[in-house]
Specification:
By secondary structure, this protein is an alpha+beta fold. 21% of the residues lie in helices and 36% in strands.
Amino acid sequence: MLVFDTPGLIDETALTVNGVNVKLGDDAIGQFGTGLKIAVAAILRLGGRIYVLRGNRLLEFGTKSKDVRGKTFQVVTLNGRVLGFTDQLGAHWEPWMAYRELASNTRDESGMVYQSLEPPVGKSRRTRIVVECPAVEQVYALRGTVMIEGAPMVTCPGVEVRGSPSRYVFYRGIRVMEW
């Protein structure tokens, strides 16, 4: 399992409402308040489990079937409460994109990402988003292809040159597409 561990307590509204962005500072990666919800949907769609330890409080995402005009949808829930989106939100997202979103949020909040064999315990004044999803856990092993680490060889205005080849394009150190 992966743990995205940050200081402070996430506001539950940020977990459930699109468009809520309360990032501090001008250099925050996140800006629209939608990515976390899309990552949740993607992980659930991939058959994974995702939950939040907000201090000692457990907040678990799940799904509930809902028929709409003869078509069945998996509506996302939080502790059984139906939210306003389905697991099809961001249907084009791949596992690396869900990892990128959670890791970017963690970076924005001065946190750390780590792999754990044991479920983490809640801790006061910390938020831990826990992901149990083999497809996303595989991305962690290749995290350097999603989030650039280390210093560049050369820096020019608006461009950094790295020493290893890559088929990916990065913006502000975050993978955005394949070349």
